[in-house]
What does this fold into?
Amino acid sequence: MPYEISSASNERIKRLIRLRERRHRDTDKVFVVEGQRLYDRALRAGMTPEVTFVDTRDRVTTGLAVTVDPVVLDKASYRSRSEGLIAVFPHITTRLDRVHVAGTPLVMIAEDIEKPGNLGAMLRTASAAGASAVITTGHAVDPHNPNVIRASTGALFDLPFAVSDWPAIVTWLDERGIELICATPDAATPLWDVDLTGPVAIVIGAEDAGVSDRARQLAAHAIAIPQADTSIDSLNVSVAVAVILFEAVKQRSRADH
It folds into this structure.
């Protein structure tokens, strides 16, 4: 079949390649989604692509679609293969004042999480646990990084998410009556000894540095995940998030019965 784009020198393909870099994504205020599964989740979340590049038009049912030779599409991919679909979407709004929570919020705050895969996995876990929102602060990774999108399996598309700083976060939490809890390996209190059934926000830091002194000072409680092997510095941050969030889920399910 004839393709609308059959050369990697095409300007639209060159743009796709440039969008691998954050500065180009930020300049154009767009990001890239690869693969049918993530694309479909973005559509279910109400997002509309600017353009979708596909190896066959059967893959898309909405918006502008451009057919591309599969070899060329693979060259434009962030990975080695494109899975036959690469879509360009407008930036997701990450302003804190656009994040709305209801009921008894369970919020995860990620401080100085620099690895895209870790942030993506945290978002995926937070979504699975039914968290109300995820907020990043400090030297946080770009949420539109392709590895964040892929590792989150698209959770970023429909999970309330914001990038902010501590003064704004403290105001936001206070206005909603949400208590801040700090997760750190050197805390004396195991996480299951702290009540997580109320409106809480749990801050967790990078694996090497942990949470900042600022976060410790702001927190009402410090909690730790007890470890049998104390020679291990810490759990992977996404694993720690899973343990903490699902402890909160367990406590809340028991409180409801």
